[in-house]
Automatic annotation (TrEMBL):
Gene3D superfamilies for the chain: Transferase(Phosphotransferase) domain 1 (1.10.510.10)
SUPFAM superfamilies: Protein kinase-like (PK-like)
Protein kinase domain segment(s): 17-311
Residue intervals passing through the bilayer: 390-413, 433-457
Protein name, as recorded: DNA-binding protein
InterPro entries: Kinase-like_dom_sf, Prot_kinase_dom
GO terms, molecular function: DNA binding
The keyword Cytoplasm belongs to this UniProt entry's keyword annotation: no
Alphabetic keyword roster: DNA-binding, Membrane, Transmembrane, Transmembrane helix
Organism: Serratia silvae
Amino acid sequence: MAQNKSQVFYNEKRQPLQLGALIKSGGAGSVYHLASQPGSVAKIYHDSIDKALYQRKIQAMLQHVPDIPPIAVAKTSLVQLAWPTSPLLNTRGEFVGFVMPELDVKLSIELEYILQSRQAEAAKLPDGIGVKVSLATNLCTLVAALHQQQHRIIDMKPVNLRFYRESLYVALLDCDGFSIQDGGERFPAGQFTAEYLAPEFQKTGKVPENQEEWQDRFALAVILFQLLNFGLHPYSGRPQSSKMATDLPGRIAAGCYAYGLTANKLMAPAPASMHTLLPNELRLMFDRAFGPLAASRPSAREWASVLRPYALPAQKKIVVCKTNKRHQHFAGLACPECTRKKQIQEALRAARSAKRQAPPRQVAPAYVPPPRPAPTPLPKLTMPAFVPGVALHTVFAVLLPLVFAWLFSQFASVTSLQIGLSTFLSMPWKDQWFMGVMSIIYCSIALVLVLVFKWAFSSIVRSKP
């Protein structure tokens, strides 16, 4: 939630602090300039954050500060670590955030931009293996200082790292998201990125407290490999099996590091990789970092000691390319940029040659649907097939009620319906017998007529024209 600039906050010495403009807002809180304290910024946590937990964590960070002071370069103080310098309190004395030094974002840029040559050129960054080795050395020195205080970064990746364009010093932001050690209590990190998560944690997605340094060592090695090999991830490449995972986390979990001194049976190197032009000393370090034993991964301090001689011009372990003065390469090895450019040109020529030699493409004839058969005409209704049947049924349906009425009148005239019961009983037995037989005959005829009428009427209903 945005804060009112007129609202006053206080540091731990109860000195008032006036907020300035909003710099950015993230998942945990918002960062503001401090109008009353230039060179510092304030991070204010959102209301949904557990402030009691973060208050204890910030207090632990204030008690265990890494030995990474700002560096003075040309009268400018370069901040390498945005570490808390004081808790931030509201007017009621409640903890709401912290104060930290301001990192100059105009002089620095994300490490992501220098990994690939095109991005570096677009951002007008110095590009070359010498620059990248210097960045790698400075990054390892920074991480080693953090580890000395038993702090861990966990979510270490290029987009979370910045470096100064001129001096090549590296800076770390969002330090309150690190895993912080305070005596017997550890405040864990809040998140991680799967593409930089060590193999042993890929399935569970959790980093145990006693193994957090193995995670930092793995993520650091991935970033160093990307710096020294044109941005390629160490687990990218060409799968040698259709069953191989296509995503980086799946390949990390399967141990598919394709750039070791010993070939990987599951994964072949990417064609654009220049890992063979790295010194064996560095390749052995990468083999350890991406090998099966987490405890064998080189520490940040070990990486720094191995890389530092390459970063010193006096050691002459990196020399200028004789073909292109803008390129650099490791002494005794070919220029990776020239080699890569040559590979790309050869691949393009091979593709053009294959296209010229390819037989003309056979174009399939257009699909022509088969002619549809003529519809079979329905049989025409004829007079013998239709009219006589319906007419006959209609005649029966009309005449039968009339015949039935006539029979009923005859039956009534000859039976006892028109005389009383006493008169019928006083008649001779012959007349009684005659009237009984006639009644049975008339009733039978009536029943037959009813059935015939029903059949005729049903036939008319079921008839279809």
